[in-house]
Hints:
Number of strands: 2
Strand order of the largest sheet: 1-2
Strand content: 5-15%
Amino acid sequence: MDGAQPTILLLGAGGCAGPLQAFGLLGTIVAFGGIAFGVFLFIRRLIVGAEVEGVFTLFAILFTLLGIAMAGLGLVGEYVGRIYQQVRGRPRYRIARVFGIGAQPETRDQKPETLVRI
């Protein structure tokens, strides 16, 4: 594998940010589904009463927290994907001056740096 590709290949998509966006969207849907399920359980408990103590409430909390984590991971992945898209075409160094045969004579106002880090 050459050095141009990132290690994780943007979730195996070969440079495409689509799977990252889908993962974040899925996390958002799961989080809102968990919140809606929790509201449903609260209303049902007020109307019907308690059936099984806490099992479905734990599911609602779990869905909500996992959905928030998935959405956050998708957001971080989106940032990484955009940064990768911006920097993949840029060179690491820009040559400011060349020394050796065929080089231009040095003037007094030139800086002594050979390589300028971008």
